[in-house]
TetR family transcriptional regulator (Devosia yakushimensis), 408 residues
Amino acid sequence: MTELTADESEERRRSIGARRNPDTQEAILEAAEAIVAEEGIAGFSIEAVAKRARAGKPTIYKWWPGKTALLLDVYHRHKPANVHQDTGTVEGDVVAFFTAIFAHWGNTGAGQVFRFVVAEAQRDEAAAASLQSYATERRKQSGQIFERGVARGELAADIDTGLAADMLAGFVWHRLLTGRLIGDPIEMRQAARQLVRGLLAPGR
Amino acid sequence: MTELTADESEERRRSIGARRNPDTQEAILEAAEAIVAEEGIAGFSIEAVAKRARAGKPTIYKWWPGKTALLLDVYHRHKPANVHQDTGTVEGDVVAFFTAIFAHWGNTGAGQVFRFVVAEAQRDEAAAASLQSYATERRKQSGQIFERGVARGELAADIDTGLAADMLAGFVWHRLLTGRLIGDPIEMRQAARQLVRGLLAPGR
């Protein structure tokens, strides 16, 4: 192997950085995860993550704009895949979403992490931008539930699928933020039914 | 006028306190309001309010369990009455609600105050209890929109009006907390329509 000059070596490091070296990125995420699990959110800082991952703070900042963005990645990695399912009906998909998200928030520390992120986003502009971009991604993902329904002819062609996704997310956020997670499957089915079928009396 | 003994005087003060002397309570609320208006939420503390209202901190704590409860009272005093209207139809009431709440949050400092309260409630147990009790009151109030609809025969008798109120609140909270207040009346009408009429294709 030919030895690199200092300049070539620097060039190589930069290009590895630009390609997002998966080892280092993975090491950072694992360190972040371990800190949340062991010390809770109170012990979480870019400094602590850098130390644990043996990475430089600038390396972390190259990939994540701040603490909240990194925390959201940790949060999202642990979100179970069954939050978004294709059950064949919109009501079934919404029930599956409620079941998975409330169980995830209630049974792991994930609910606490997400509450913390929402709180940070109300006071800090960088955190607000991170939450907004995360919510935009989820809005697209949940929107697919309603887009599939429109494509099947199950839902009206003139609905706004983004607004439907906001209604879905808003309902679960509100319950989380006021400490009223739903555990009762009957209540979840009723909420899904009202979201999809509406509230009108038969024939109205 | 007969002079009171120290004991009688103390007794009298306590009974005035128990009756919630409206002058002092009003003075405290006005002081709290002035601090929020002049210094913003950052300058808001029970200490600052006590000083401005020339009241003792124990007097404030007798009526409000903490800073968040007092802030919520200030917030609620400024909420315009037209947030809850009886327009004769549920969809009309929901459009009126969206119109009034988004305008209030966007045009005054109220949106910032409410975001701050929600953030506090994610980290502090007393703040969480205050927000929860406030949300319970609002849930009852907004629930009346849907109860009137059921009473008129407009809405199905088997809907859960509390879940409908949660869906309404969740939608507007989510938009506030992600910095996406709605200003477009067409979008508000579409959201109200979807909440009340649901998403199903005609005939489904």
Remarks:
- Residues 47 and 194 of chain A are 46 Å apart (CA to CA).
- Residues 1-18 of chain A have pLDDT under 50 and may be disordered.
- Chain A touches chain B through 50 residues (CB under 8 Å).
- Chain A has two domains: 7-63, 76-197.
